[in-house]
Amino acid sequence: MKIEHIAMYVNDLEEARDFFVTYFGGKANDGYHNLKTNFRSYFITFEDGARLELMNKPGMDDPEKHLNRTGYAHIAFSVGSKEKVDALTERLQTEGYKVVSGPRTTGDGYYESCIIAVEGNQIEITE
Q1: b or e along 13-36 (b: 16 or more beta carbons within 10 Å of the residue's beta carbon)?
Q2: Domain 6-56: which topology?
């Protein structure tokens, strides 16, 4: 068994798509638009086959996102090495994204950093 994909609703579909394509090398499909409901989505496929569905529809609730909350906490991307974690974290920070931890080795042995991006959601970058 495998996870087929993970999905997240966003307010700015194109901005979210561009973030995952630009910083994590994802490939976006052409998108889907249901004209009856005005639901729109993109599937982003990553090098190892993992997929992320970005979705949007009218009338979505968008409460403030607290880091310490129940539910999905973050999406983690393995970039292959400590040096790549450092480089991507520095690039994201330079381009205006908030780094909330790291880069560092955690107590459970991960070398990682965490940033806030895509409408207040936490993204983990690990080796």
Answers
A1: beebbebbeebbebebeeeeeeee
A2: 2,3-Dihydroxybiphenyl 1,2-Dioxygenase; domain 1 (3.10.180)
pLDDT tens, position by position, 76-92? 999 999 999 999 999 99
Name the pTM for this structure: 0.92
Q: What is the pLDDT of residue 127?
A: 96
CB 76 within 8 A of CB 121: no
| Res 67: pLDDT | 81
Query: How far apart are the C-alpha atoms of 127 and 125, rounded to whole Å?
Result: 7
Q: Which residue has the tokens 């638009």?
A: 33
